[in-house]
Design goal:
The protein has one helix at about 15-25, and strands at about 5-10, 25-30, 35, 40-45, 50, 55-60, 65-70, 75-85, 90-95, 110-120, 125-130, 140-145, 160-165, 170-180. With about 190 residues, it is mainly beta. The chain has one domain (about 30-180).
Length: about 190
């Protein structure tokens, strides 16, 4: 299979390198591995594809939001695992800024097979896993969980505020969140 218009993510080149590639109109491909994100990956171009193969894990460093998507048409996020870092991130993925109002009914953003883990393999903290402000988003097979077991075994310092904040204009199926510290759907 030939991929064109794609840049492969490399663990040592996250953040600025990926934002530069996105600004040049490239799509992102993550292969299996653990990627530390030291600055927000900003998806601003309509119809951008961010694809993970083998569920790569993106972990924010120093409480950054690992990925934001502008209020644009047709972005596709799929096959990714976002794991909270030890410093609280306000959100792990945000689609559309607060107050977004454009209709995307003809070319909606899709978020499929994207998972969020807070804790478990290491200490983690995030206020909200996924915030969707863009209208008409299609959300399928999403799981946000607080892994308060495993290595840290019921660690009360693992903070998972909310699983999702999703507008009533989104179409969501196959979603789960458990257990969150706050209500999962405001």
């Amino acid at each position: 299979m030939v991929f064109t218009g794609v840049v492969g993510a490399q663990a040592e080149r996250l953040g600025g390198h990926l934002n530069q590639a996105l600004s040049q109109g490239l799509n992102l491909l993550f292969t299996p591995g653990v990627y530390h994100v030291n600055q927000t990956i900003n998806v601003t171009r309509p119809d951008t594809v961010v694809l993970g193969l083998g569920f790569p894990t993106l972990i924010p460093d120093n409480g950054v939001t690992p990925m934001t998507v502008a209020d644009v048409n047709g972005v596709k996020l799929a096959g990714l695992l976002f794991a909270a870092g030890p410093v609280t991130s306000p959100v792990l993925v945000q689609v559309g800024p607060s107050g977004s109002s454009a209709s995307h009914a003809r070319d909606p953003t899709s978020i499929q097979d994207v998972f969020f883990r807070i804790g478990g393999a290491g200490a983690g903290s995030a206020t909200t896993s996924l915030v969707v402000n863009s209208s008409n988003a299609i959300i399928d097979d999403i799981w946000a969980w607080r892994a308060d077991h495993g290595y840290f075994n019921v660690d009360p310092s693992i903070h998972a505020g909310r699983g999702f904040e999703v507008p009533d204009t989104a179409a969501a199926s196959g979603t789960a969140t458990a257990p969150a510290d706050l209500v999962s759907y405001p």
